[in-house]
Design goal:
The complex is a heterodimer of chains A (215) and B (573). Chain A is 36% helix and 20% strand. In chain A, strands 2-3-4-7-5-6 form a six-stranded mixed beta sheet, covered by helices on one side. Chain A has a two-stranded antiparallel ribbon with strand order 1-8. Chain A starts with a strand and ends in a 10-residue tail after the last helix. With 573 residues, chain B is α+β, with helices and mostly antiparallel strands. Chain B contains 22 helices and eleven strands. Chain B has a nine-stranded mixed beta sheet, sandwiched between helices. In chain B, strand 2 and strand 3 form a beta hairpin. Classes of the chains: A alpha+beta (215), B alpha+beta (573). At the A-B interface, strand 1, helix 1, helix 2, helix 4 and helix 8 of A face helix 8, strand 9, helix 20 and helix 21 of B.
Chain lengths: 215, 573
């Protein structure tokens, strides 16, 4: 189906919350989903997979120039880890992130480090993404599957000069944003957990108006 | 000096700068719930823009039958762009007519379309717009809306006109509109255009301008519709509405809880709205003298306000006495102005300070509107400062230390200490989204299930919880480290950092208190829209009027309509 960014942001917020994230992290997921969708990156399938594995209880731990799960054998959540990268702010030294789910979801967070003269390169597996404030290197059709990888053992993050990201964003907003029906429905199931079923009392008192209006 | 005050007090205007009213005064629910429209309100700013840019209005299509069923198209030329309101009329059974946002059928449904729709596009809209939320839309569809007839008045107006008579002016004034909108959707709902699609266009750069244009065109449709139906019924003897009477018809609206969370969810945006209005007030209060022209303008607007309040009725037991007190306030103000209030230095400032002691909060806020009114040249630029890119304020500064965040709490959130959340009365309500209607609701924590699914609108309680946790955290700890340990406080930390730079961003009252009147939130937002005649139907929803007294599209470029909202434009051609 074709949806708007507002619908994407709203569904990501509520599905992340429904999957058990704190409101603040769910807000991060929502803004990140919108960022990915605006760049035609596969946000919905990866988010649905990621949320199916919530809660990811493992905390990220900073070890020198690496971020790794604080417990051996555990995996990192990219939203919690991405929020940490956003909070800490730009790192001039390259960083490695170990053992992380849905690595694509780090992109919207490190994108906040960018300025017109400063881009960020994210690399894992066959993927190499250069991100500027309003630009994104063309990941290439072959890399689409790798972009949507559910897990990777290592993501490398490094600053690069801004000129590296000459490929401009495609402006999709005139056409809406296509999304896979399966992933959308999976997220809606999680979203549904945030709603309160009606009770007799809430029907009477919750909203106020309940009368016909023929005057 | 607190961060809030240094930001709020930073504007210097003239030799005798007057400080902006502090957030602890402005952002209380009792005062927000007494807000009135000003010349910065969105629908007034939209009409000024339309006049200035000479928007061209046409009605290329009006295929409506005697029952009101069919399609009409209104076109607006805005520079090089064109917008079209596509209106569908329906034949609605009385038992289907409800104010609730959850209705499934309406007397009329509307879409504001980006461009000129061809027949295929109108056919696509015809398959979707009449079912509103149950349809799907495209980014070419900017706004979606629906309205129901105010049946009694609608029928009487059609009846009178079809007999060749003018309808009863008092009846028209008492209701004030022929149709009442029950929802106006923008910003990506159901697939329509995201705000980002139009935010860069000058005509829609201000908040809710596209929504206001839609409602303005719907109002024109309702007046055209009754005249058209009168002709179909009465033939050659049918009359059209006399222009002054026609202008007294606004468009109604019913608004419920769905709108309430908006003010809480967009602190940086609300700060822009409030800052614009408060800056306008401070600029006026700082003027050294009141010119003769400004004095006369003020007195005309005051007379219009008194007429407006005289016609403002409600059965609401809280609002009705407030309206009576406001009428008395305006009489007191008129008498005061007649006794040399404009003599001496800084007369506008003295008038405001007099009102702080002499008038009710309703009266004080009406005076704010009246003080701003004669000073368009001084303040109208502020209407263009009321939007913000919220993405700019979203990122949390995780390098900030715990002690610095605690200091912001002390300076900006002292008000949150007022509630004792160990007491049931402070923690009595919870905001939730209902599964049945997918709409925001307000529940009773002690009596209703679902409090574990509470929406994050209990700002004061969450802030107090954060304050307690911060007190036990190492003062030197970074927020990045703190939030790794305590992600449940993340949304509150973000708010607090935003509020440090947006002093009017936070409603400074407990939004889950037993005595909360949610309608105060609605009133404030609607005042910024520019509506009049707030008519509460409970403490959770109300009816209002928009564009009453406004010129119609075909009149807009003839004459000076600046004071239409005060009825001053009644003297116009």
């Amino acid at each position: 189906m074709i949806v708007s960014l507002n619908e994407i942001e709203s569904l990501a917020l509520k599905s992340a919350r429904g999957a058990g994230m704190s409101w603040g992290l769910a807000e991060e997921a929502a803004v990140a989903a919108s960022w990915l969708a605006a760049r035609s990156l596969p946000w919905a399938e990866t988010l649905a997979d990621l949320l199916a594995q919530q809660p990811v209880a493992c905390q990220p731990r900073i070890e020198g120039d690496a971020i790794a799960p604080s417990r051996a054998g555990a995996r990192l959540c990219p939203i919690l880890t991405g929020a940490l990268l956003s909070d800490v702010g730009v790192s001039v030294r390259p960083i490695k992130v170990r053992d992380i789910l849905a690595p694509l979801w780090l992109a919207p967070f490190v994108a906040r480090w960018t300025t017109p003269g400063r881009a960020v390169r994210l690399a894992w597996g066959e993927v190499s993404l250069a991100i500027g404030p309003n630009t994104l290197s063309n990941p290439g059709a072959a890399a689409m599957e790798a972009l949507a990888a559910p897990f990777t053992s290592c993501v490398e993050i490094a600053l690069v000069p801004g000129a590296d990201t000459a490929h401009s964003l495609r402006q999709r907003n005139r056409d809406g944003y296509p999304v896979a029906d399966d992933a959308w429905r999976a997220l809606q199931l999680l979203e549904h957990r945030t709603y309160v079923p009606a009770s007799a009392q809430s029907r009477l008192s919750g909203a106020g108006a309940g009368l016909l209006d023929n005057d | 000096m607190s961060p809030a005050m240094s930001a709020a007090g930073s504007e210097v205007c003239g030799p005798e700068a007057v400080a902006l009213r502090p957030p602890d005064v402005v952002m209380r629910l009792a005062r927000m719930g007494a807000a009135h429209q000003t010349r910065l309100s969105f629908l007034r700013a939209m009409l000024r823009h339309a006049v200035r840019e000479r928007w061209q209005f046409t009605r290329p299509r009006f295929d409506i039958d005697a029952r009101g069923v069919g399609v009409a198209v209104y076109r607006v030329g805005v520079g090089e762009r064109t917008y079209s309101l596509v209106a569908f009329g329906h034949d609605l059974a009385p038992e289907q007519r409800t104010d609730r946002v959850i209705a499934e059928a309406w007397d009329a449904t509307f879409a504001l379309y980006d461009g000129v729709p061809d027949d295929a596009e109108i056919e696509r809209l015809r398959r979707n717009v009449p079912v509103q939320e149950a349809g799907r839309y495209l980014p070419s569809d900017l706004i979606l809306a629906r309205a129901n007839r105010s049946v009694r008045l609608f029928d009487r107006v059609v009846g009178a006109l079809s007999d060749g008579r003018q309808p009863d002016a008092a009846e028209m004034e008492a209701t004030g509109y022929l149709m009442r909108t029950t929802a106006v959707y923008g910003n990506g709902k159901f697939g329509i255009a995201d705000r980002a699609v139009i935010a860069g266009r000058p005509e829609f750069a201000g908040p809710f301008r596209a929504e206001m244009l839609t409602v303005y065109l719907i109002r024109a449709f309702t007046a055209d519709l009754v005249e058209h139906m009168a002709v179909l019924r009465g033939g050659a003897r049918a009359a059209t509405l006399a222009p002054p009477l026609r202008r007294r018809l606004g468009i109604g609206n019913a608004t419920g809880l769905g709108m309430a969370p908006f003010l809480v969810r967009h602190p940086a945006l609300i700060d822009r709205w409030m800052t614009a209005r408060e800056t306008a007030l401070a600029r006026v209060r700082a003027l050294p003298v009141a010119t003769r022209g400004q004095q006369e303008h003020f007195i005309r607007a005051l007379a219009g306000a008194r007429r407006q309040v005289a016609g403002w009725t409600t059965d609401d037991p809280v609002q009705a006495p407030r309206i009576a007190a406001l009428a008395a306030d305006l009489e007191r103000l008129r008498a005061h102005v007649g006794t040399g209030a404009f003599d001496g230095p800084m007369p506008w400032d003295r008038l405001y300070r007099w009102a702080e002691h002499a008038l009710s909060v309703e009266g004080q806020e009406m005076l704010v509107s009246l003080l701003i009114e004669p000073h368009g040249a001084l303040v109208d630029d502020l209407a263009e400062t009321m939007a913000i890119d919220e993405a700019e304020v979203f990122r949390i500064d995780g390098a900030m230390r715990v002690r610095d965040l605690a200091a912001i709490l002390d300076s900006t959130y002292a008000w949150a200490r007022a509630a004792d959340f160990s007491q049931p009365a402070a923690n009595a309500r919870f905001w939730y989204v209902s599964e049945e209607k997918l709409e925001p609701r307000l529940g009773q924590r002690a009596d209703e299930p679902g409090a574990e699914l509470e929406q994050p609108l209990a700002v004061a309680r969450d802030v107090e919880s954060l304050r307690a946790v911060l007190a036990r955290a190492p003062p030197d700890e970074t927020l990045a480290a703190f939030l790794l340990r305590a992600p449940e406080h993340r949304h509150t930390v973000r708010r607090v950092q935003i509020s440090a730079h947006h002093p009017y961003g936070e409603v400074r009252d407990n939004l889950i208190a037993a005595d909360l009147r949610a309608i105060d939130l609605l009133r404030c937002k609607l005042a910024f829209f520019g509506v009049t005649r707030f008519d509460p139907q409970s403490d959770k929803w109300l009816r209002i009027t928009l564009f009453q007294g406004a010129p119609y599209p075909h009149e807009l470029h003839d004459g000076d309509w600046d004071g239409w909202i005060w009825g001053v434009a009644d003297a116009q051609p």
